[in-house]
Write a structure and sequence with these properties.
This protein is α/β, with parallel strands linked by helices. The protein contains eleven helices and eleven strands.
Amino acid sequence: MATPQPVRGPVPGLWHTRLIRLLGGFALLGASFLAQAANYTLAVVPQGTPAETHRRWAPFAEQLQRATGQHLQLRVYRTFDEFETDLVNGLADFAYMNPYHFLMARKVQGYLPLVRDGSRRLSGQLLVRRDSPLQSVKELNGKSIAFPDPNAFAASLYMRAMLQDKAKIRFTARYFGTHANVYRHVILGSVAAGAGVNVTLARERPETRGELRVLYETPGTAPHPLCAHPRIPADLREAVTRAVLEMGKHENGRTLLKHIDIIKPVRAVYARDYQPLEKLGLEKFTVQTGLSPR
């Protein structure tokens, strides 16, 4: 009787079974990886240069990514038009926007407010050189005034509404893209005055602030909210909200929040914080973009 010889190499049936299991494992691993690697975008309204915005927001985005376990791709913009285009098309998953942008983005895409700064109100500030002879808004009648962008909220829409409807003056509006550019043009004397907001002026160097004087200020409003597109799952919206609120409880987190002007994070509520702004009637002061009322 012949002695059975050992089978050299895997038994065909066993090899096939192992291969199926191996491929199935790779498939499950790949699916898990794709689920964990879901990308979300975080868009930031351009108040400064793209480099400045990235420098201030990148550490916050990285911390938020760690806290939520979701990948966040930071998007910065050169112009308001680019930012507004992404909002009207719903391309931004999360976005930090001015109050007017939020009202318009809510109408066209249904964006939801998550958190805002609770430490101070947002106010537009009309600035002149510290040594300017101008002492009242009325003296700006017929002169050139600098603004960052036509659809910037407190620094442009609200300010122009107050100057035209309340102060009853006529002026030439010039737009320079960012708040920082406005401040520098005022200091250089190329315009009689320029408009910014209390938040961005506070970020300027002491020597820059020292060259400027506040001539007029708009009433305060709720500041910029961090918002989410309604397609974002409710549990992720809540996770982001809680992560930002948690940052406000620790020194490292508060440092990150200070850089993005959410010094004391609180939950943002549309009815309480932003619905009252709809009564201001700022639509007539907007420049037509994808967000402007049709």
